[in-house]
Amino acid sequence: MKQVHYILGLTITSFIAVHLFNHLLSVLGVDTYMAFMDKMRLIYRSKAGETVLLTAVVIQIISGLRLFFAKRKRVDGFYEKLQIWTGLYLAIFLIVHVGAVLTGRYILELDTNFYFGAAGLNTFPLNLFFIPYYGAAILSFFGHVAAIHYLKMKREVFRLSVTQQSRFILLTGIIVTIVVLYGLTNGFQGVEIPKAYDVLIGK
Fold first, then answer.
1. Topology of domain 2-200, CATH
2. CA angle 49, 88, 55 (to 5 degrees)
3. Per-residue pLDDT at 159
4. Is 24 helix (H, G, I), strand (E, B) or coil?
5. pLDDT in tens, 70-84
6. Per-residue DSSP letters for 111-174?
7. How far is the CA of 95 from the CAs of 25, 156, 196, in angstroms?
8. Residue pLDDT, tens place only, 89-107
9. Per-domain residue ranges for the chain?
């Protein structure tokens, strides 16, 4: 199960990296964000791409939760704890986030684009929930990667170097989180959300 979880994790990590890069492009404007998203959708919105991705996510959530409940009482050390608790948050986030995206696409019939993700971030008081919700997801992703990197490499000779590398991954996560939230909120000044998305913010 651990091996399956690790291999599928690499697949999902590849998608998340592209997805986060797309979010980072929001600092250059909505048009730049949308243009990159449209190109990437040719891959991950294809029947094959979406089937592989959704299957990987479902199996990853199930295996991740099983690993969490099996290991939670036996962990020792900062990075082991970081690995299982960030994994738990990511599992919960994926359940909610993927469910919300599929609901938006197939029930609400919305284009789950920039505005779908930005609606809650730019509407008070919903942003009091969505800013920490998305922020914690990005930090958990980088925290999980940092923990796995450390635990996989800790037996290497240059242990101090591995510790520094893991800390660098965590620091990168903090920077990416701030930049993504900055871009999706138009420099924290707010984004005007099209009326089609009012259903998401209770209007």
1. 3 helical TM bundles of succinate and fumarate reductases (1.20.1300)
2. 20
3. 57
4. helix
5. 988 888 899 999 999
6. --SHHHHHTGGGSTTTHHHHHHHHHHHHHHHHHHHHHHHHHHHTTSS-HHHHHHHHHHHHHHHH
7. 25, 36, 24
8. 999 999 999 999 999 999 9
9. 2-200
